[in-house]
Amino acid sequence: MITERCRSGRTGRSRKPLYARAYRGFESLPLRHIISMQSPDCIEMIRRSGGLDSNPSVRPIRRERIGTAAGRPGRANYRDVVCNPSRNVVESIPDNNLTLWLTSMFRLMKYFFLVSCIAFLVACQQPATGPEPITLSGYTMGTSYTVKINAAIDDDTASEIHTALENELHDINAGMSTYLDDSELSRINQAPAGEWLPLSQPIYDVLLAAFQVNRQSLGYFDVTVGPLVNLWGFGPVRKNPGIPDDNDIAAAMKSVGMDKLLLDTNKTLLKKTLQETYIDLSGIAKGYAVDSLGRILLDRYNLSGFMVEIGGEITARGVNTEGLPWQIGVEKPVSEGRVVDSIVSLDNRSLASSGNYRNYFESGGKRFSHTIDPATGRPVTHNLAAVTVIHQQCMLADAWATALLAAGPDIGVQLANLHKLLAQFTVLEDGKYLHIYSRAYREFLQEK
């Protein structure tokens, strides 16, 4: 039982427990090394076995300050004192250097053990970090691109990778650009109707995906809207935008529709049924290029942690330098500046966005966007400002973002739910931006 005797001479039960610790291997140490003083006004006493009277060698002790250590300002010297309860006197206790050293070492071991445990716990809570990412960048398809690689590679390897990516982008642009008169796509657009045209593998892959999304989106994704895009002033040859004449719209509509194209999937051939049919792959080509660069990094260079971005279309694999999935900012659909609306964690997936908030013109107090509804031949008029789609393939994410933006919030959400797409719709209502999510996207958010 532990009691305290105060200067007044009264004894009573302590408010706080006092601990007498007998450590294994230290049982032979004098008692003064295993009893602690809790209050300078009280003397601690421990009754062991039959008590102090039956074991007079066990006495309560405390440490008493006796002065300042020589040459060490602020550091004090102490002595151990014992109280004899029967005589109420304090006696000095001779010091024992060995026991003092052992006690000090034990306390030091406890301190370092505690510090090590704290450091271990903190390290477990921190995300793994790796080398600084290798960043490669440049320009392609009328926009910029950025590639970040989370791997320890030397400068020569980084330069080799950059050259390989540049060559791939050059080949894709040379095949799919409508700005280059000698591109493969331009030659297709200039070719006469009724002639089977051989296709390179990249063009064939993109057209095959375009036919798939066109069918599944009820025609809202259509790579033949080029004449209408040009007519409204948003094409490769920019002109002062304005509202075209109804007769001009009707004339352009005659050559629009993917039913004007025939694709031979056995021989990778394409035939146009109308000379005027014009193909524009801008709604899917950047996504294809992102996938293509990702395949080079993964297959040719065996890299598992990277992020590829071309004009806002993104694919990400593995983790970033913090050991986390790549964190991608989705922009708020505002024309003034760039504001992050939300952060998406991409883990072996791709993301593409399409919006009406930058490429538009105004006439008669109305805004006309660059997104053309293939069914009407006119810019869309709904309140859908932007769409973001997450998919395994960036090419399909790119195409579906374009299709859902043309479809609008009502039909777009139904299409996304029908095809289990991860899609976020941002609508403008009463001057405020609101989000609408597909069912698959809501589940995706819950998983995060």
Could you explain the architecture of this structure?
- With 448 residues, the chain is of the alpha+beta class.
- It folds into two domains: 2-95, no CATH class; 134-447, ApbE-like domains (T-fold, Roll), CATH 3.10.520.
- It has ten helices and 23 strands.
- The protein has an eight-stranded antiparallel β-sheet. A three-stranded antiparallel β-sheet has the order 2-1-3, with no helix packed on it.
- Strand 7 (134-140) and strand 8 (143-149) form a beta hairpin.
- The longest helix has 29 residues, at 97-125.
Q: What is the radius of gyration?
A: 39 Å
Helix proportion range: 25-40%
Sheet with the most strands?
Answer: 8 strands, antiparallel
Could you give me the name of the CATH homologous superfamily of the largest domain? Answer: ApbE-like domains
Number of domains: 2
CATH fold name of the largest domain: T-fold
Low-confidence stretches: 1-66, 68-72, 74-96, 98-102, 110-128
Give the overall pLDDT as a whole number.
77
Structural class: alpha+beta
Strand content: 25-35%
- Regarding CATH, which class of the largest domain? Alpha Beta
Number of helical segments? 10
Shape: globular
Number of strands: 23
CATH architecture of the largest domain: Roll
Terminal CA distance: 56 Å
Arrangement of strands in the largest sheet: 7-8-12-13-16-21-22-23
